[in-house]
Each structure stands twice: as C-alpha cells, then as structure tokens.
Amino acid sequence: MQSNAALEYDYSVAKLYTYTAILFGFVGMLIGTLIAAQLAFPELNYLFGEYGTFSRLRPLHTNVVIYGFTVSGIFATFYYAAQRVLKVSMAESKFIMFVGKLQFALYLIAATAMVVTELMGITQSKEYAQMEWPLDLLIVVIWVLWGVAMFGLIGIRREKALYISMWYFIACFLGVAMLYLFNNMAVPTYFTSGSLGSIMHSVSMYSGTNDALVQWWWGHNAVAFVFTVPIVGMIYYFLPKESGQAVYSYKLSLLSFWGLMFVYLWAGSHHLLWSTVPDWMQTMGSVFSVVLILPSWGSAINMLLTMKGEWNQLTENPLIKFMVLASTFYMLSTLEGPIQAIKSVNAIAHFTDWIPGHVHDGVLGWVAFMIMAGLFHMAPRMFKREIYSKKLVEAQFWIQTTAVVLYFTSMWIAGITQGMMWRAVDEYGNLMYSFIDTVTVLHPYYAIRALAGVLYVTGFAMFAYNMIKTMTSSRELSEEPQFRSPMA
Amino acid sequence: MTIFLVVMLYWYIVYLYRSEKKGEKDYEKLGKIALDDELDSTPVNTSDPLPTDNKEQNK
Asked: Who among B12, B28, B45 is closest to A159 (CB)?
C-alpha cells in the first residue's frame, strides 16, 4: 500500500456490475410481467413454444432478478462503497483488481449459462436453487473470489474501524457461502442410474423431509442474506451519505446487526408449517419469525430517524424518497412476514397468492428501490456526470410506487379470498368450491397484478434510460459531490 | 435457547453503553465514516482507545 495524493477510488468493477444490474433487472422484470399476464390470460403461454410457458419462465424470472439483478446490485454497491468506507482504492492492489475483474468475467459466464440452461429446462427443481451442479461449482468459485477481494480490501484498509455496512456485506458473504454449499449437495443421476440417468441432471443428496428442511433453510436465508442483509448494508451507507446525516444511532445499528444474525437462521422452517416436519421445528420457525420483527425494525427505524430534522429533503431529493420508501417497505414486509408465519394465519395464507404478494412488496418496494437509489447515487461519482433528469427520477418513483401498491393489494385480496374459498365447507362438511371456482374469482386480481408489472417495468426502463444518458451525455461535473447527488 | 439469546441481547446493550461510558469506545463517531469517505480524509478509527484526557473527562 502506498500513500499517493493523486490516488483515486477505482470504480471499474463497480461500473461493470452496474451495467449487468441494469440489463438483468430489465430482462428479469420483463419476464415477471409476462408470467403475471400469463396467469390472467393463459393463451399467452403459447407465444414462444416450450420456451414461453409459465413453467419454464417462472424459475427464470426468479433466478434472473435474484442472481442477475440483485446480486449484480450487491456487487456493484460493494465494490463502490467498500473502497470508500475502508478508505482504500482498488487501484492500490493489482491483485485485488485482477480478482475483481476475474470475478466479474466468471459471473457473466455463469449468469448467461444460467439463463440458457433454465430456458432449456435444465434444472435441479429446487426453488431459488434451480441451477445444475456445474453452475453451482462455478458460483462457488465466484463467491470465493468475492471473499478474496473483500478480505483483501479489508487487509489493506486505512480506516481501521469497519463501518456497519461492511459487517452486513461480510455476513452476506459468509451466510450465502455456508447455506449454498449445504443445499446444493447433489449427485448426477448418471452415476446412480447408469445409462438411464444424465450427467446434466442431478438429485439432492437429502431425501423427503430432510431435503425440504435443508431446502427451506436455504430458501428463507436466501431472502435473509441476499434480499435483506446486503440491502441493509446499502441503506446504512447510501442514506447517510446522500442526506449528509450520520446514522441516528450507531449502537442500534450494531445491536440490530447481531440480532438479525442470531435470529434469521432459525426462521426458515416457517415455510414448512402444517407439513411433515416435526411440530417443535414448525413452532420454532414461527417464534423466531415473530422475534425477527425487532432487529428488522431496529434498522428501519434507525434509518427513518437518521432523517430527523431533515425531512425537507424528502420533498427536494428524489433519491431520499426512494430510500425512505424502501425503508418503509422493509418495515411493512418484515411485519407481514411474521404475521404469515403464525401457524393459524399460515393455515389460510399457505400456498395462496398472499405469499407472492408479501415477497413482492419486499423485493419491489425494498430491494429494487434501494438498489436503484444506490446506483443513482453512485452514477455521478463513477461517471463524473450529473444525473440526466430529475423529472424522470420523480416520474419513475411515482409510477413504481403505484405499481408496488397495486401488486400487493391485489395479491392480499386474491390470497385471502383463495385461502377462505379452499377451506369453505357446507353444512355437511363438503368443500363448497372446486379449484376452478377460485381461478374464476381471482381473474380480476391477476389482471391488476399484470398491470402492476407493466407499470413497474416501465419505471425500470425509465431508470435504465436515465442511467444510460447519465453515463453518456449528461453534463460533466468538475468535482465530486459531497452529499446530495446533482441532477438536471 | 430463547433465554440465552435474551440474556445475550441485554448483555450486549449493557456492554455497548458501559464501554462508551468508560471511555473505551465512541461508537457514534463511527457513523461519520460514511460521510467523510474521501480517500485522503483522516480515518475516524475509534477501534483504538480514546485519548487519555477524554477518558478522564468521562469518569
């Protein structure tokens, strides 16, 4: 490490991940909108033969938005913010720079292969873990490289204290590493069934209930360590930096961090309520899910209180709007989740549309809002240009907020209607409705959800356009903005 | 398990406040790391104990 006055932060890796976040975000959300429309209008399943069916596109949608958009957003913000809070430039170590670029190259290969293989129907058939074993191995390499870059930067840092965002990024790295390995233990059927099997098709090493438990230990903690932990890390950096206000209580941020770490790992079994897993384990999943409200709200309230005395910025700066609403949606979805995890509520909610409703107020309102706000904040610093259009950011905000509200309200109504109809019995104890009765009743809500998808993806296209124009033709800045991001 | 976690939680809260009161740490100062994040700005770096005069003031 050398001390050099001319040294600057190097954003080359952060920029690469910004490009993929925009690309995968648009593709993933477009597919999501199509499959939402397919549920309302089934004839849309036949647009592209086998490649356009709901069953083929649904896992592609979740994988592209999780591993394409969100993970790109996490890496982009990490390679940007980690340098700044550690006060060390990537340019100071050729090795770390090489590792970062190699990680991106392998990530791009893996993400592209994920899209192609899933479109071809090659899948492990495990939710959020559809990628087959060769891709799993590649992802392990990518993850290890991220760890090398992360701990390499930490090793040469000038700022000896690790800022709270770094703790969250470290937790994301460790949590995913552990859970991913356990859940993806699989054997290609070629080795177990000889000529009947395939080298490209594997089955889990676990079976029955154990497989379900490991699957949802991963599945729920993918939500924890991909959709929550790194996104909290982002807001702890970007909201204070954009507003110029230090985090309201640093002690509360530490307490919430350790609370989240201790509690989240135990909550996964709430996905298996009323199933064949042991009853005590179901109860444990419920209890820890409810306890989870505390550390989640600890961070969210800390963020809202960070704006204390500066609420005028909410009307003046659209990026603050995005982040404050993201924090609010985080509170909403971390209250809604524990409510759904209560066994009696889950008896109605399980397998209904209330569940995707819950997921989407979290991912659209919290995760995507935070990533887009983070990338908007980074753009003037990375490209040394002001944000192309403030009006476009404002319009995008309102269009996407409307979309999220339409999405979750329609799914709340649809889900509860569905749950009640499935359980309704007549005076003799016979079921009152067949499945198709629920489908008929739910059609308007599915149509509203498809409309919400159209609005959200339109907002994302505006975001992409604004970012591309910022990169290419916006007014150049003579110096880096300290806090508020400049926009035309 | 739940009792253990509750005890740990309260112990940690007490630990955070006591270490600040004793002058061993200044956690709130760490919040400035995000604001003052230029490459050439002075690190906040409060993992080290506070200067002696601060410790005495806090007693």
From this structure: B45
Please state the ipTM of this predicted complex.
0.86
- Which residues, other chains included, contact A437 with Cβ-Cβ below 8 Å and sequence gap of 6+? A421
Return d(Cα A410, Cα A350) in angstroms, integer.
Answer: 17
Dihedral angle, C-alpha B6, B7, B10, B13, nearest 10 °: -110
B3 touches A: beta carbon within 8 Å? no
Strand-pairing partners, residue A142, are: none
CA distance A373 to A400: 13
pTM of the model: 0.94
B28 with A244: Cβ contact below 8 A: no
Cross-chain CB nearest to A159 (options B9, B44, B48): B44
CA-CA distance, A294 to A300, in Å (whole number)?
A: 10
Per-residue pLDDT tens over the stretch B1-59: 778 878 988 999 999 999 999 988 889 999 999 999 999 899 987 454 444 444 444 43
Burial class (CB in 10 A: 0-12, 13-18, 19+), A469: middle
Decide: helix, strand or coil at residue A129.
Answer: coil
| Residue A116 CB burial class (10 angstroms; 0-12, 13-18, ≥19) | exposed
pLDDT per position as a tens digit, A324-356 = 999 999 999 999 999 999 999 999 999 999 999
How many whole angstroms separate alpha carbon A212 and alpha carbon A255? 32
